[in-house]
Amino acid sequence: MSAVLHVPAALATKKGAGYLAEQAGDQTVVLTNHGKSTAVVMSPENFDELQRALREAANRLISGVTDLVAEGATFRSVEDARQRLHVDR
Fold this sequence. Notes:
Helix content: 55-70%
Number of strands: 3
Number of domains: 2
Largest sheet: 3 strands, mixed
Number of helices: 4
Strand content: 15-25%
C-alpha cells in the first residue's frame, strides 16, 4: 500500500478534484475535517489491490472456519477462535 497524505477538506475544496486525483496517483489521500478522517481517495490500482486482498482474506477465513466446523471444534472465546484460525488483530 502507498504512503498516506492527510489533507484538510477545506484545502481540498480550494485545490479541487484535479489536485486530489494527482495526489492519489502517488499516495492514499485522507481528507480530514477538524482533524478527523472523513474520506479516502486512492488510485484505481490501489483500490483494486485492496479489494483483492480483502477477498483473499475473506476466502481464507471462510475456509478456516469451514475446516473447524467440519472437525467439530468448539470455541470458548474470540481469542480462542483467532488463535485456531491464525488471525492477528
